[in-house]
Amino acid sequence: MGGNISSDGSVFGLHTRATSYVFAVDPAGLLRHLYWGPSIGDVGQFPVPALAEVSTNDPVAHLTPQEFPAHGGFRYFETALRVVLADGSRELRLDVAGHSVDGDELLINLRDSYAEVDVDLHYRLIADLDLIERWAVVRNSGVAPITVEALASGQIHIPATDLRFTNVHGHWNAEQQQFQQQVSYGKIVTEMRRGTSTHHHNPYFILDSGAGEHHGDVWFGALNYGGNFKCVVEQTQYGSTLAQIGLNDYDFAFVLAPGDELRAPTLVIGHSDSGFAAMSHRLHEYGRRLMRDDRIRPVLYNSWEAATFSVNCDSQIELARKAAQIGIELFVVDDGWFGQRHGIFDGLGDWYVNEEKFPDGLQPLIDEVHALGMQFGIWFEPESVNPPTELYAQHPEWIYQVPGRASEVSREQYLLNLTLPDVQEFVFRSIDDLLSRHPIDYVKWDVNRPIAQAGTERSLWKRHIDALYAVVDRLHEAHPNVLIEGCASGGGRIDFGTLRHFDDVWTSDNTDAYERLTVQRSYSFVYPIKAMRAWVTDVPNFMSQRIIPLRFRFHSAMMGTLGVGLDLNEASDAERAECASYIEQYKQIRDVIQEGLFFRLRVQTSNDYQAFQYLLGDRSVVFVFLPQTKIGFHGETPRFRLHGLDPQGTYEVRTDGSGSQRSKVQESMGAAADSDGAPAGDGPTRHSGEYLMHHGLSVRLVGDYASTILEVEQI
Ligand code: GLA
After folding, report:
1. Do the Cβ atoms of 250 and 230 come closer than 8 Å?
2. pLDDT per residue over 68-101, tens digit each?
């Protein structure tokens, strides 16, 4: 839609709906980046002068902003490729050897004729989203093996300095903690070295120059990969900033036999000249298109927090009955149903149903769940094995290990060497058998420790992830209707690689509804809400010990794909009825939440409100939270300006009966109600689109952990 690739053989233009990305073969024969930003249709006007060295210490090859610089020659910035050739040298010079255009794809072939190494640079337009996918394939065209020691997916050149870098840091139970850092001289490096989880940094870069949600330049890129990655942002001495992202070169070496090739993960890049919201919208839609299954996600129940490993047929049936009563659509049995799994010490790898807990197998529970009108799901941690298991006794050679050294456990488990074909087959069979024998609709695929003691093979970091994706894809092929959730100790699998292969992501084991707002907000910068699983769990919260009202807990979890993890046996009838009403409301609005545009609303108040809007067609849903009322701001009625409405349209605003309530004392002091004159809960109000977008929606909350959901619909 609206895109095209222009090429006169030396200047190439990749044109999306509103952006252009331009590079050329320069007089030195190098592929030189020229431009990335708002559309410029005529690429013929770009000058490609021969570059002059700044000094003998800053030679031309170092200054040239190459599309894919390789290690060698006078190149001292980060390079995208480093190869050890058969003679031990690392010298490469990549010249343009050819190109081809096929629809929305451009292929540039770079070649070092002396070393007989080829690199194919692929670019694919996603024109309507103003995004470009790019990936690189390095090929050994010679007759002797070579070793790839570093391979990035791409290098990006931004003609600006003093940018701001945004990413997340975190760890288990504290995922998606956004940070922003000024880029200056030197490098910012974010990476993952653990093989299996992206808790600590996420495989994307966002660089902006003074941007806000709706203004300013933002350049961004995200990998389709959940394995070891490295992102380097480097401000040069020549007025530009480089961003490079791809496979991590940490402990990495990939031998290519003659004829073999290695593909770097797909990188999606984009430029927004209207701030972060536009970036998020494009990436959300990109993520939704990656997702294999476009069904609206069901409301699930999972008893992990309520029961941990103490699952058995009778207690799960009891929970299932209560879950069905409150409107749950998918009942998931978490950890503890298999092998001798009574805690973290045993069971992983023995994927047979535990007979003490399920004397007649899983079928009676599944039958009951289905009879109650719900789907059935089950937890696996297929990449792991506990030392006491039958699997480990039979196959001690299947784990990652260094011969002669004691193998180290984490969470009392080893990791299976998924690069071995026998292990891949075992993992596939374990899940496939269960899915073939029982009508199962959902699998939660977890992993709870990183790779360590990786042995002698330095390619396995990549091979593990490739094998993981291949097994998951194979399961999808065999069981196309089964949704598979990607989880790694909570939110360790949040990335576009996961979304290409899994159907949902578990966002965090941190289910504290207040902290979750921070996690979810950061998540929303890049990843689609439709994949963001969020549960309502018991109070005091198991980690924070915070006691948050059920209403706020539901509202926080309703911002994503809703799940419930409450101990429903302990809940009172009144609490269960309250749960049922939120779930009912969620079902009415979830299409807007899961598939709508998402806005992080500006909060024009000195109090600590957080507000978010979802928009789908003529319907909008607005969430407003006030975790804590500050003294002195009780009387303030903040306004939240909405986005994307029809200015001339008339909208009905319905509240859910919470909103501002004035106490008797407030009334006696003449304290104001909402500035729109209607305390929330008093029935719908009507406003024009332009009023809601420019003046804003007035919402006043009081108390701690106050929250409300407003439904806005054009009439
Ligand atoms: C991980 C997951 C949890 C739960 C446990 C089970 O921590 O993130 O949701 O499944 O494992 O052991």
Report:
1. yes
2. 999 999 999 999 999 999 999 999 999 999 999 9
Contact 328, 372 (CB under 8 A): no
ω before 387 within 30° of 0 (cis)?
A: no
* DSSP-derived secondary structure for 274-329: BHHHHHHHHHHHHHHHH-S--SPPPPEEE-HHHHTT---HHHHHHHHHHHHHHT--
Q: Is residue 487 within 6 Å of ligand 1 at its C-beta?
A: yes
DSSP calls for 165-185: EEEEE--TTS--EEEEEE--B
> In terms of Cα–Cα distance, which of 636, 650, 643 is closest to 685?
650
For residues 419 and 467, is the Cβ–Cβ distance under 8 A? yes
DSSP 112-158: ETTTTEEEEEEEEEEGGGTEEEEEEEEEE-SSS-EEEEEEEEEEEEE
Q: Where are the beta strands (DSSP E) in 73-113?
A: 81-84, 95-102, 105-112
- pLDDT, mean of residues 354-372: 98
Residue 474 has pLDDT above 60, yes or no: yes
Are 714 and 649 in contact, with CB atoms under 8 Å apart? Answer: yes
- Please state, in angstroms and rounded to a whole number, the distance separating the CA atoms of residues 494 and 172: 13
The DSSP letter of residue 455 is T
Q: What is the pLDDT of residue 658?
A: 53
Instruction: Judge whether residue 341 has pLDDT over 80.
Output: yes
C-alpha 207 – ligand 1 centre gap (Å): 34
| Buried/exposed 639-656: b ≥16 CB within 10 Å, e otherwise | bbbbbbbeeeeebebebb
Type and span of the H or E element at 471: helix 460-478
- 304 CB near ligand 1 (under 6 Å): yes
**Residue-level pLDDT at 446:** 98
Dihedral sign for Cα 157, 161, 167, 171, please: positive
Q: Per residue in 101-153, pLDDT tens? A: 999 999 999 999 999 999 999 999 999 999 999 999 999 999 999 999 999 99
Query: How far is ligand 1, taken at its centre, from the CA of residue 209, in Å?
Result: 39
pTM, entire model: 0.96
Would you say 193 and 201 are in contact if contact means Cβ atoms under 8 Å apart? no
Cα(633)–Cα(637) distance, integer angstroms: 9
Of the chain, the percentage scoring pLDDT greater than 70 comes to: 96
441, exposed or middle or buried, with CB in 10 Å at 0-12, 13-18, 19+? buried
Residue type, 262: L
d(CA 184, CA 539): 45
356 Cα to the center of ligand 1, angstroms:
22
Of 344, 447, 509, 533, which is best to mutate to test ligand 1, by the most ligand atoms within 8 angstroms of its C-beta?
509
d(CA 137, CA 266): 10
Beta carbon of 485 within 6 Å of any ligand 1 atom: no
The residues annotated as belonging to the active site are: 446, 509
Q: How far apart are CA 191 and CA 487, in angstroms?
A: 19
Instruction: State the Cα–Cα distance between residues 492 and 175, nearest whole angstrom.
Output: 8
- Using alpha carbons, select from 398, 479, 481, 492 the residue that is nearest to residue 432: 479
State the closest ligand 1 atom to the C-alpha of 304, by its place in the atom list counted from 1.
4
Tokens of 236: 């040069």
Amino acid at 426: F
Residue 296 reports pLDDT greater than 60: yes
Closest protein CA for atom 5 of ligand 1: 335
pLDDT band at residue 607, thresholds of 50, 70 and 90? confident
* Residue ID of nearest Cα to ligand 1 atom 7: 489
Mean pLDDT, residues 210-229: 98
Ligand 1 closest atom vs CA 334: 10
Q: How does DSSP classify residue 67?
A: S
**pLDDT tens profile 681-705:** 568 999 999 999 999 999 989 889 9
